[in-house]
Here is the input.
Amino acid sequence: MSRYPPLDFSSLSTYSLFERESKVTTGDFAKPAVAGMTVRQLLSSLPNQLMGKDFPELIKRLAHCHREHRPIIVGLGAHVIKVGLNPILIDLMERGLITGLALNGAGLVHDTEIALAGKTSEDVDLVLGAGAFGAAKETGEFINGAVNRGYEGQQGLGEALGEAILADSLPFASMSLLASARRLQVPLTVHVAIGTDIVHIHPSANGAAIGAGSHHDFKVFCAMVADLEGGAYLNLGSAVLLPEVFLKALTVVRNVGHEVRHFTTANLDFIRQYRPMTNVVNRPTADGGKGYAITGHHELMIPLLAAALLDALAD
Here is the structure.
């Protein structure tokens, strides 16, 4: 005989389904898609659950920021550039919907290569064995030359590169975030770690210039964050560096007396990672803001976000 005979359920207490609180009702269900529906109609047809609720809510908050003339700052990982989203981000800058940008060093490299040649992202597996990865002559010379001139003029990296691309009338400057931000006078900062970017291996690289330019840009970024009350910060695809930069900037501005408590943050990436969740979505908004974690491919989610925001502001 078994040590544990089957438990008798006959005395189980029950309650009425109709009196029980439930998290899901048919009122929350999605509506069927209709051919030719607008973005607004699409969002209103989503189920009122999870991201079907959070994504439209984020759009409303961003639209409110813009209507109230509050900043919308975007921190950008290089993958967003590599999948071809520069035209959408430039359009949002031109419309005044993006008021500031922050890139990592890889973003600077890929954006500059696009401006130079209309292409970027080499096949690392193909060239690494020969020690040729990152050795593109024009990339190293142009970026390091601009950084070194910017060092002499006490410029940040974003300003120096944007100016250089415009001054040299590079053939694809219209597709460059750096050039467009400079043309539109939208602050764009670049935050690097020495040794992480291909231009650091070139003979023209000057560590003092790179460090001074990036430190200058960190101070500019801090000034942007100091004005973030009532605004929004979006982290698009940076897994480590920019979430760390954002958290340090936020603590600096609070330390020196700026009231930055009530704002919106969001992390958009194709996987959820610790630092964006902790340093962008959760910790910064704990005192009165709200953070959103939106998982999906950049090439789908960022165009959708842009279209939804434009639609929300159309009234």
Summary: The mean pLDDT is 95. The chain has 13 helices and six strands.
